[in-house]
Design goal:
The structure holds two protein chains of two kinds.
Chain A: H1 5-19, H2 26-58, H3 66-90, H4 92-104, H5 123-160, H6 162-167, H7 199-202
Chain B: H1 2-12, H2 16-38, H3 41-60, H4 69-87, H5 94-98, H6 110-128, H7 132-143, H8 148-155, H9 159-181
Helix pairs in contact in B: 1-2, 2-3, 2-4, 3-4, 4-8, 6-9, 7-9, 8-9
Classes of the chains: A mainly alpha, B mainly alpha.
């Protein structure tokens, strides 16, 4: 590049231009310098404050000897104990009330209802109840209906044949049930237990009318 | 070099004297460089302020240059000028950039008149004919006396690339001046 004389002329011109360049106006330079120094002070203050905080957080600010730190810890614990004792003394009545309320309050037990167990075999309940009623009720009704039938038959016979009534001597008593002979009809413990439900019993259809 | 390194280390610790010394040493040069690029003294002054403000922020963050402070400052100024030139084009009068031929101060001789004509032609060619990269490289290499390596660092290109840009820029200036000034070129 330097071999070309034209290029060298250009470079010489550029060097002249460099030497003749105007400088920084003094007013602008002074103003800019002042602003720069203000900024430097601000940045330095902020950085110094940040570094101080970092030192404090790191614990590198004022290092203490182990003995001093132990004494400080003991003093701190004693101060805390003294403060708690003083507070407890001043508020002893309130504390007493609080303890009484806490101790005398009945404790409520939470009772949970027993869990509802859903039966897997619903047929068993249906089969038990009708059998129990079915054994007693027909006997009672059957005796009554017989008596009524007997009374009706007797009244008819009275109308038709008064002589036969007179032969009874006026003692037209209703037919009663025979003497129980020590059996009052209650068969406690003698009722046959229904057989345990098996798979075959599920198929048995129980009439609902009973 | 040792003084420069010591100054840089002191400035990194935000030493006030070091920061002041850096400003006094480099602010006028950065101003000249910026003025050559943007041709506006107010914009150049603002860019100088931005350059040193960024330097302070970098120092405060524990970053910033470690070795070559001068190159770092020019690099920052270069990026700021490029950013501003993308936003708006500044075309200040050439007299601001030249600043030597103030009217009425002296009576020029014939040689001085010829030189002034050549100088104005050179400045016009630099501003109009060169690409942005060529102009930056020519200014850094021949007006700011940076080496090829330093220029490459500031521009952010390889040294060989800087050589090519420089040669093409000088060749273009020679060609334009030859056309304008006649056979003497």
């Amino acid at each position: 590049m330097e071999n070309n004389p034209g290029d060298q002329k250009v470079i010489d011109l550029l060097s002249k231009l460099k030497n003749n360049q105007s400088g920084y106006p003094s007013e602008l330079l002074e103003l800019r310098r002042r602003k720069y120094m203000q900024k430097a002070v601000q940045v330095g203050f902020a950085t110094g404050a940040g570094a101080g905080l970092k030192n404090i957080l790191k614990g590198g600010g004022a290092r203490l000897t182990p003995t001093t730190s132990t004494w400080l810890e003991v003093a701190l614990v004693l101060a805390i104990v003294a403060e708690v004792s003083t507070a407890a003394y001043f508020y002893r009545h309130k504390l007493n009330n609080l303890f009484e309320v806490f101790l005398t309050t009945p404790r409520v037990q939470e009772v949970t209802p027993p869990p509802v167990v859903t039966s897997l075999l619903p047929v068993t309940e249906i089969s038990v109840v009708p059998i129990a009623t079915g054994t007693e009720t027909p006997t009672a009704t059957s005796t009554l209906s017989d008596a009524i039938v007997d009374n009706n038959s007797n009244s008819n016979s009275n109308e038709n044949n008064e002589s036969s009534n007179n032969s009874n001597g006026g003692n037209n008593q209703a037919a009663s049930t025979p003497a129980p002979n020590g059996n009052n009809g209650n068969h406690f413990g003698q009722t046959k237990q229904p057989p345990k439900p098996t798979q075959e019993l599920k198929d048995i259809k129980v009439p609902k009318n009973k | 070099m040792k003084e420069g390194v010591a100054l840089l280390k002191a400035a990194q610790k935000l030493d006030e004297e070091a920061l002041t010394a850096i400003f006094d040493q480099f602010a006028p040069a950065i101003y000249k460089y910026t003025l050559r690029l943007c041709h506006d003294p107010i914009v150049a002054d603002n860019i100088v302020g931005d350059v040193f403000a960024q330097l302070l922020e970098q120092f405060a963050a524990g970053k910033g240059p470690r070795t070559n402070l001068r190159s770092y400052l020019y690099q920052t100024a270069y990026h700021l000028v490029v950013d501003r030139s993308r936003d708006s084009q500044h075309n200040a009068p050439l007299e601001i950039a030249v600043g030597i031929y103030e009217k009425g101060q002296f009576t020029p001789t014939q040689t001085q008149i010829e030189e002034r004509v050549m100088m104005e032609a050179l400045i016009t060619a630099m501003n109009t004919e060169l690409t942005e990269d060529q102009r930056h490289v020519v200014i850094l290499r021949f007006l700011e006396d940076f080496s090829l390596k330093e220029t490459a660092e500031i521009i952010g290109k390889e040294v060989n690339n800087i050589k090519v840009i420089q040669n093409r820029g000088i060749a273009k200036l020679r060609k334009v001046l030859g056309l304008q000034l006649g056979e003497s070129w």
